[in-house]
Design brief:
mainly alpha; 59% helix
Amino acid sequence: MRAGDKVAMSALRATLGALDNAEAVPVQGTELRGSALEQSPVGVGVTERARRELSEHRVVEIVRAEAAERLEAAAQLTTPAHVHRIARLRAEAAVLLHFLDDASPT
């Protein structure tokens, strides 16, 4: 696998995780009623909830935030010892921004 592919894979995996987290809904009413196992909710699907459906605009916001987070982290690293980490963060941000550019309507 080429080094560029590893950078892209890392950025995309993290961003997919962020999107997955954004789709999650808080689980309410299933907190433990006691510390005993027999008092906890059981059964298939007892804590399953429908996931949020993200709009295209929201997905773009999340991807932009992920890219911005990487650029900000790169800007905060100032010592020469971090030069490789800075380059990787910038490359990951570039991958994400490239996907946004490709997805924008022409």
